[in-house]
Write a structure and sequence with these properties.
Blueprint lengths: L2 H15 L6 H7 L9 E2 L6 H4 L2 E2 L8 E2 L5 H16 L4 E2 H18 L12 H16 L5 H22 L9 E2 L20 E2 L6 H17 L4 H16 L16 H13 L25 H4 L5
């Protein structure tokens, strides 16, 4: 993950963190198989059907001890480990061991003032607390490579948690990941189904939200495929980037009349994914859903 992409992901996690339902952890914990509800991930404790997902080194025999963590945080870590495996990923055991050990140091260092949940602090704040705890203990800051490993794994876990715990509409998120969020409609055998899309590249707020609704309705009705959503975001991103120099694009460019630009774009692009009466319905078994009613928030957009 590049620095710019990682920073965007951390920003999205922070924005979504406030909309998470704390009660969702109970449902997430219920989905973890009983044999994986462990207080220590080790060679001798992990069930054989999950053992192959752990990438380990010489420290694996001692395992990763979760007991220093508060109970809610321990459950979150266990669920994240299980969820990564469920999605076909691998668990970097040395990195997991570093993260859990440093989190335990922060919990002990703050003496009851530390959050009981991973979502209790932003990723950058967790990293600062970890550096502070290590410095108090050893007189030195942790190595940059160590912090990179910890930050990336922590970001991955928190991204999974906010995706599973967010109570808001999925289509209003700036990051869409169909692998982690099965509410996103996909056609069967989608060739790009493991790729995510980012709407935060579009700076104009109403344009970004309009495109999100456009893509959501298109996926629901089958007018758009996931591959097309990728291309739409790229195209609209270029359109959005041209607005500051709208005067160079010729006479009559709608940027000179923002209300008209918004109305024209909504009517010509967002209204496009409306299924005609004779169109075929989505195939059974796919993740698409029927289009919901047109939202009133767009109906009042007129040229000015």
């Amino acid at each position: 993950m590049t620095g710019r992409r990682e920073a965007a992901t951390i920003g999205w996690v922070e924005a979504a963190r406030g909309g998470c339902d704390p009660r969702a952890l109970e449902d997430l914990w219920a989905n973890v198989p009983e044999p994986m509800r462990l207080s220590r991930f080790a060679e001798w404790s992990v069930p054989p059907q999950f053992a192959g997902a752990f990438c380990h080194d010489g420290t694996w025999r001692a395992g990763v001890d979760l007991s220093p963590l508060p109970e809610p945080m321990r459950r979150e870590v266990v669920w994240c480990v299980f969820r990564i495996i469920e999605l076909g990923g691998k668990i970097p055991t040395p990195g997991l061991s570093m993260l859990v050990r440093r989190l335990g140091e922060v919990i002990a260092d703050r003496a009851g003032r530390a959050p009981a949940s991973l979502l209790g602090l932003p990723v950058p704040e967790w990293c600062q607390q970890i550096q502070r705890a290590v410095h108090r203990r050893s007189g030195r800051l942790p190595a940059a490579t160590t912090m990179t490993t910890i930050r990336r794994l922590l970001t991955r876990m928190m991204r999974l948690l906010v995706t599973a715990s967010d109570t808001g509409p999925w289509w209003q998120r700036d990051h869409w990941n169909p692998v982690e969020d099965n509410r996103i409609p996909l056609r069967d055998h989608e060739p790009m189904g493991r790729y995510s899309v980012r709407f935060d590249r579009i700076g104009t707020r109403w344009l970004r939200r309009g495109l999100q609704w456009h893509c959501k309705v298109g996926l629901d009705t089958g007018v758009l495929s996931w591959s097309t959503v990728h291309r739409r975001i790229v195209a609209v991103g270029e359109f959005d980037g041209s607005w500051p120099v709208a005067g160079s694009m010729g006479r009559g460019w709608p940027m000179t009349r923002p209300g008209c630009a918004r109305s024209c774009w909504i009517s010509s692009v967002i209204c496009a994914p409306v299924r005609s009466p004779g169109a075929a319905a989505p195939a059974s078994g796919c993740r698409r859903r029927r289009c919901s009613a047109w939202p009133a928030m767009w109906s009042s957009s007129t040229c000015s």
